Amino acid sequence: MKLCARYFYFALTILFSAVLLLGCIKGPQPNSNIADLLSQQNEENRNIKAINDKLFASTRSVPTMEDYVLGEGDLLKVSVLEAPKLKTEARVSARGRISLPLIGSVKVGGLTVSEAEKKIQRTYRANFIRNPHVSVFVKEEVSGKITLLGAFKTPGTYPYLCRQNLFQVMAMGGGLSKSAGTMVQVRRASTGSVHPQTYLIDLAGLTRGAEGNVNIPIDSGDVIYVPKAGTAYVYGAVRRPGNYPIKQQMTIPELLIESGGLLPYANQKAIMLVRSKSDGGKPYVVKLSMNDLEENPAHRIDVQNKDIVFVGSHKLAAFFSNVSIMGPFGGVGVNPGAQ
To answer: N or C: which end of the chain has fewer CB within 10 A?
Structure first.
């Protein structure tokens, strides 16, 4: 009788603990559907397209070498048509100067090739030659480079052939990729300092027609960096809950793989996505099905910055996965190996 009673109380303890646990496991409650989510996702894609349209609209005709801005390290060949003996090669110094026969030091750094030719002509005309014709040929381009890093369609190093603004330079990189955020960093070497200057520019206002002062001039040597769109968070019945960087065009199933995959007791029909709204309103909460996400191309959902994915569980299975039954004489304990 005593043994039966102990089994009875043991079973009663299990049942009571399960009831308590089942009453406590709750995920976010849905307030939207997948159609709302896809509509919002399409809006985000339209925003990137609108920004790219602004970038490409700002481009002008293709620059030529006459538009090249001279800078430190460039090797120039300077010729005077009326005086062949004055032909010389000179490298632009750190102070932007070159040394020429008869007239000595001339500051050309920061000038285009065409502007440098006119300045040298004026200097020779003032002292030595009545009507000189000067040509400047850039034999080695050293300074005229800009670098595009991050979420551009074609990142890389590009020649800086003329004075350009931010939009024109970003258009050279093909515009923003779909994984881009809207923040842009412009890093610029600071004269007289080992620390570069950094400008932070938010392009989000372009989609609302608010261009403002974001289209700043870009200097030779600048580095333009566009970070990818942030971080997503995974919680619930996954092996490694936490925050994860968003890879290019990452889907919800791919994000769950990054988190180690689903636990055995995960409810694949109860995946909740919480997504913030751009207008700051109440976030979307949408219930998703893993089967639908993997097999229905129309329901492809790309992960966005600050997305929260909560994977629900089959509650009773979750309870018994996390409890080790050690026998009626050993009691009930938490399984330390449970994930």
So the answer is: N
The single-letter DSSP state of residue 192 is T
C-beta atoms surrounding 270 within 10 Å? 19
Strand partners, 116: none
User: Which stretches of the chain score pLDDT less than 70?
Assistant: 1-28, 30-47, 55-66, 143, 190-195, 204-212, 229, 248, 278-280, 315-339
- Measured distance CA(318)–CA(308) in Å, rounded: 21
Structure tokens at 330: 């050993």
Cα separations in angstroms, 147 against 157, 220, 225: 4, 9, 8
- Residue entry with tokens 């065409």: 114
- The per-residue pLDDT for 335 is 37
CA distance 51 to 58: 11
Structure confidence at residue 59 (pLDDT): 62
Q: Residue 22: its pLDDT value, please?
A: 44
Does the domain spanning 49-63+144-226 belong to CATH 3.30.230.10?
Answer: no
All CATH 3.10.560.10 domain ranges in the chain, comma separated: 49-63+144-226, 230-334
Separation of alpha carbons 219 and 25, rounded Å: 57
Burial class (CB in 10 A: 0-12, 13-18, 19+), 126: exposed
What fold does the segment set 230-334 form as a domain? Outer membrane lipoprotein wza fold like (3.10.560)
Q: Where are the alpha helices (DSSP H) in the chain?
A: 2-24, 34-57, 113-127, 166-172, 252-258, 290-295, 315-321
Q: How far apart are CA 254 and CA 235, in angstroms?
A: 15
**CATH number, domain 70-140:** 3.30.1950.10
3-state secondary structure of 23: helix
Contact 275, 284 (CB under 8 A): yes
CA distances from 70 to 44, 65, 81, 166, 331 (A): 40, 10, 22, 19, 82
